[in-house]
Amino acid sequence: MSEQFTPVSTLGEFGVIDRLAERLSDIPRSDGLIEGIGDDAAVYRAGNDMLHVMTTDALIEGVHFDRTFIPMQFLGYKAISVNVSDVAAMNAKPLYATVSLGIPRNMSVEMIDALYDGMSSACKQYGMELVGGDTTTAHALYLSITVVGEVFEHHVTFRRGANVGDYICLSGDVGGSFAGLKILLDQRQALQDLGDAYEPDLDAHQYVIGRQLRPTARLDVVDMLSIIGVKPTSMIDVSDGVASEIHHICKRSEVGATIRVPEIPFHAETQAVADQNMDEIDAYALFGGEDYELLFTVDPSDLDKMRELEGVAVIGTIEDQAKGVRALTPETGLMPLSPAGYQHFDPEEGPTGPGIGPDLGPEEINFSSDDI
Ligand code: ADP
Ligand code: MG
Question: Model's pTM, two decimal places?
């Protein structure tokens, strides 16, 4: 009798997560647990009106980064940032981090020093402490970080709180990290082709490369919202692309959405990279991942406050679930919008969507932030 094995690629990353969540569903649930698997961070009660949030994200060499192109200090900074971004997505503040580190034999002590300098500078910036971890040898550099944060119960935001009529808001600009990745992959190719004759050509792309190599978690947006007295009805961070993230909000909130694509902000350097590659900027804006901006919804009564807020754009509205998730562009009118962000386990999956999209072939390293 032969046993049947199912390749994980048949499920995709989110299918795998749904499946393993189902297998864990008979563990008795404690009273203190407020949110388990399914949001940017788990949430549990820490005191009368105080909640804690907890999240884990790993960065693995060859999957999420290429050591040729990321300085160790940036890698350390990024590893903390991607975790703090999930804490920010709950409207929370980070408190403590632990780090699990896998070190390949070809790494020097100086490289580890630089990695930790980067983590230290991120911790200082985000007002948190690194309080422990684990060290092991590994075949590739591996960094897995867990962060615990805190939030008052009346401030916590989930993916599941969006209501029909809410406005969809986005901090900063998007697509830049993907544009930076494009440049780095081109440079890697040039290095392979030219060998010693290779000369880096990165000056015109510093912004987008910075977005890819040293992203910042938007705790400042969390502060800003609190200062102006706006509590988002739902929130998620943009790790896989705006299209993918709005699908998560809609699925958890049981609503639909319309994204007005021309309202999505992107940087001039991002546009330049799209032009250079003859790609549609819309595809970068919708499907490019790893920008670590915050995508959130607000009640219509908060719209005026949001319009006055610098660095936040109103990019759409929440609709009835029956309408699905749609994109509105002047060229196409209203079109169904697929998630099509990065998803692990599907080698064909890259940031593509309706229209021409940038294409990361299956042979390319997928520098997405998700687990593999
Ligand atoms: P994010 O992109 O915000 O980090 P993910 O898509 O990685 O979120 O994860 C979605 C949800 O699934 C989160 O609640 C996360 O904790 C949970 N999750 C992901 N991988 C696993 C796993 N291997 N075991 C248990 N829960 C997981
Ligand atoms: Mg997230």
Answer: 0.91
